[in-house]
Every structure is written in structure tokens, then in C-alpha cells.
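Whiteboard transcription, Tuesday session. T.W. wrote the C-alpha cells on the left side:
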């Protein structure tokens, strides 16, 4: 019986449930387009298994990359495992395929909303050390210059609010 309890991974269940917010948001965009001022900043690990981006982008962003879905994106598709989108880099259209599990941050600054994730693999992968991934200071500076602000939501914030309400 104790073996079953050890295998009951609430942390992974919660991560997967929160990732469904990303999937559902992308599905809404496919169905209705981006409404009002909504736009998405999606940060993902470029070296995560299944990520398909041009080699020059992997070289420029060896750890993480943030894409923006706002005005000019095309052919957005999503399924239970990944999404793909056509974006332009220096006026060259490129198709990106991004596993949902590679996403580390999903934000919609128009409503001050953000989720932060730990990358998930179906199996724990000890060969890939996500702690060693560097955040690109240039990208963070660029985000600050654009006035990108969002609230990162962690489970701890929900726990403390629920505790205060009781």
C-alpha cells in the first residue's frame, strides 16, 4: 500500500492541469482569434526533446526562448502534446513546433496573468539538468523595456490565500 502512495504525484498532476490552461488558451485563439488587447508571451526550453525550431534560433537561444503571439502569427495548431505556429524572424517565416511540456512561462500581460512551470517529461529524465539553463539577460532587459509585467502564479500563493480564508 505504501508503494502506491509514493507513486501518487500531485505535483505532476497539478503541472499537467495548469498546462491545460495554455492548451485551452491556444484553442480559443484558433477558434476566435486574439480579442481585445490579449497577447501571449510563451517561454520554452529550446533544447527540450521534441522542440523543432530553426538551427540559427537554437544557436541564438541555447537555453530558453520567448515568443510573442500578438499581431503576426499564422497557422497556429495545438493538440494534447504540442503546438505549432508560423512566426517571422527578420521577415523570414519559420514554423516552430513546441511541446507543451517544454513551456516554462505562459503570460498574457494584457490581463496581468502568468503561469510558471517546471518542464515535465513523461519519465523523469536525469540526463537533462533544467537548473543549468541560463536566462538570457538581453531577453529580460528587452521585456523590461517593453513594459511586460505579469503576475507569476505559484501553488504557494494559493496555499497561503486559502489558509488565510479559513
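and on the right, the sequence the group agreed on:
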Amino acid at each position: 500500500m505504501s508503494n502506491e502512495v509514493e507513486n501518487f504525484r500531485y505535483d505532476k498532476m497539478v503541472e499537467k492541469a495548469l498546462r491545460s490552461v495554455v492548451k485551452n488558451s491556444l484553442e480559443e485563439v484558433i477558434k476566435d482569434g486574439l480579442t481585445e488587447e490579449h497577447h501571449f508571451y510563451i517561454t520554452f526550453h529550446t533544447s527540450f526533446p521534441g522542440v523543432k525550431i530553426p538551427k540559427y534560433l537554437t544557436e541564438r537561444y541555447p537555453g530558453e526562448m520567448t515568443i510573442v503571439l500578438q499581431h503576426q502569427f499564422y497557422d497556429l495548431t495545438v493538440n494534447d502534446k504540442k503546438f505549432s505556429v508560423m512566426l517571422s524572424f527578420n521577415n523570414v517565416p519559420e514554423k516552430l513546433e513546441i511541446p507543451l511540456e517544454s513551456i516554462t512561462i505562459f503570460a498574457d500581460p494584457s490581463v496581468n496573468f502568468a503561469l510558471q512551470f517546471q518542464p515535465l517529461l513523461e519519465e523523469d529524465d536525469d540526463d537533462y539538468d533544467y537548473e543549468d539553463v541560463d536566462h538570457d539577460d538581453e531577453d529580460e532587459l528587452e521585456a523590461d523595456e517593453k513594459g511586460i509585467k505579469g503576475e507569476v502564479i505559484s501553488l504557494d500563493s494559493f496555499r497561503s490565500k486559502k489558509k488565510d480564508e479559513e
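Someone added at the bottom: The longest strand covers residues 82-89.
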